[in-house]
Fold this sequence. Notes:
2 copies of one chain form a homodimer.
Chain A: H1 8-11, E1 14-18, H2 24-32, E2 38-42, H3 45-53, E3 59-66, E4 70-71, H4 73-81, E5 86-94, E6 98-101, E7 112-115, H5 117-122, H6 124-129, E8 133-136, H7 140-150, E9 155-159, H8 161-167, E10 170-173, E11 183-190, E12 199-207, H9 212-221, E13 227-234, E14 241-249, H10 257-265, E15 270-277
Parallel strand pairs in A: 1-2, 1-3, 7-8, 7-9
Antiparallel strand pairs in A: 3-4, 3-11, 5-11, 6-9, 6-10, 12-14, 12-15, 13-14
Amino acid sequence: MIEVPVSDKKCDAVVAYQGVPGSFSFEAAENYFVGSAELVSFQSFALAMTSVVDQEAAYGVFPVENSSTGTISEVYDLLLKERSLSICGELTLPIKHCLLALPGADLAMLREVRSHPQGLLQCKEYLMSHNLRGIPGMNTAICAAEIAQLGDLSIGAVASRAAAKAYGLKVLAQDINDITHNATRFIIVSATPGPGGKKTSVVFHLSHQPGSLYNSLGCFAARGVDLLRIESRPLRERPFEYSFIVDVAGDAKNQPLAAALDDLSSHVSYVRILGSYDPI
Amino acid sequence: MIEVPVSDKKCDAVVAYQGVPGSFSFEAAENYFVGSAELVSFQSFALAMTSVVDQEAAYGVFPVENSSTGTISEVYDLLLKERSLSICGELTLPIKHCLLALPGADLAMLREVRSHPQGLLQCKEYLMSHNLRGIPGMNTAICAAEIAQLGDLSIGAVASRAAAKAYGLKVLAQDINDITHNATRFIIVSATPGPGGKKTSVVFHLSHQPGSLYNSLGCFAARGVDLLRIESRPLRERPFEYSFIVDVAGDAKNQPLAAALDDLSSHVSYVRILGSYDPI
Lengths: 280, 280
C-alpha cells in the first residue's frame, strides 16, 4: 500500500468518490488524503464529478485505468465535458482482495462468499481450493457491509482491507487474487488547479487525415519531450475527428513542454491541458 | 443488429467464445457466423483462446473495446502472447439490454430483476421507474438461464435478445439502457490467416525515449497511411519499453501499407502484424 503525506489543506478537504466506504475508490482517496479529509460517497461517477464542479467537494478521486480490465472511459468522458476541472494528482493502488468475515468466524466455518462478479472471478482459484461458494453482489464493499449486517458466521466477502476496517470485519486471508499484478490508476481532480508536477495530461482533437497525429506528436519529439501514454478515442458527435489523450513528461508551465504545447495548439482543432501533477 | 452473410467455410466451423449461450460474446459470434457454425462456450478468455491455438476451434470471438467501459486489456494481452493467431475479422455489436421474463409473465407481475451489476446500473432508470428491484448475478445470460429454471413469474432478468432465445424467455421490453450509445467491438481470431481486408492491426515495441513514437509513426505518415486507432501499453516484463497497438487503413499485403510496415520494422525493437480484415 502506498501512503503519502500531503499538505494540510488537502487533509481537511471534502473529497468525493464513487461507491461506498471500503470500495477501492474509497481506499485510494484514504491513501492519497491521509489525515482528516472528509470522504463523501456518490452513487455514480457523474454525481461525484458534479460535486467537484460545484465545489461542494474540493477534490474528486476517480479510477481511470485498471491493469487487467483497461481504461475506464466513462471517467475520461466526464472529465472532458467538465472544462472547469483539472487533474492535480495521481495514485496507483494495488488491488489486493482479502477474504473477510465476522470477527468470531474462521476459515473452517465459511461456506459462502459474496463479492462483485469480477472479485469472485479474480479469486476463483482460492475460493475453489477452499470449497467456498461464490455469490455475486453489486460491489465488493456493499457485500462486506451486507455480511456485517447479516451476522452469519458462515458467510464471508471478498473485498479490500479498507472494507474490513469500514464494517468491523476480520481479514481471514489477504492477497487472494489469482493474478497478483492487479492495480488501478486513480486521478485526483479539482476545480482549483494544483501546484503542478512532473507529468502532464493533454487532450487534443485532430481531423481524420493521414499524418495528422504524426505532425502533432512532432511538437513534442522536436523538443525531446517524453511521451508516457497515448490513447485515441473517436469523437461520437463529430465522426471525422479523433480525440487523443496524451500523458507527457514535464510541467506545462516549464520548458521544453510549454513551447511544445504552444506549438501543438497551432496543429490541432482543439487542445486542453488537463493538468500537471506528480504521480504517486 | 448487424447481420452479415459470410463464407460457407465459416458457417460450418467450430467457434469459441467466453461465456454462456445468450451472452453478448455469443450474440456477436452468432451474428458474425450466420448459418450453422458450432458455438462452443468457455469459462475464460484464456481457455477460449487456447482452443483456437490448438485448432479445436477454427475461430474465436472476443470483445476488445466497449464504448463506455473502454478497452478489454486481457484479450489483447492473451492475443499478444499467442503468436500463432491472427485477427481475421471485426464486428461491432450494439449492446441492447432487454427485460426478459417467463412466457406467462407480464410487466405488472414482475417484482425482482436479475442481471450482472453493470446491466442493472445501465438500466437503473428503467428499473426504478417500473418499481423493479435489481438483484446482482454473475452475468446477464446466467441470470436469464436462472430465471428460466426458477419458473417464478415475478422474477425477470436484464439480458440480450439472444438470451431470451437461448432460454425460451419472453422479451417484455427492449432497449431499456439509460445510455443508448453502448456498443462493444469484437475481434475474430484464427490460427489460419484470413483473406485480408481494408483494416490492419499492428503491435510494435519501442524503447522509452523522446521521439521514438513520432519516428515510427512517420513510416505511416510519409506514405499517406491513415491511422485509425492507437493505444500505448507499458510492457510489464520490460520496464523501459512500451508496446503500441495501432489500427491503420489498408491491407498489409498491399501498397502503400506494405512499404510502411517494412520501414517500421527498421525503427522498432519488435513488430507483429496481427492481421488485415474487414470490419463490419
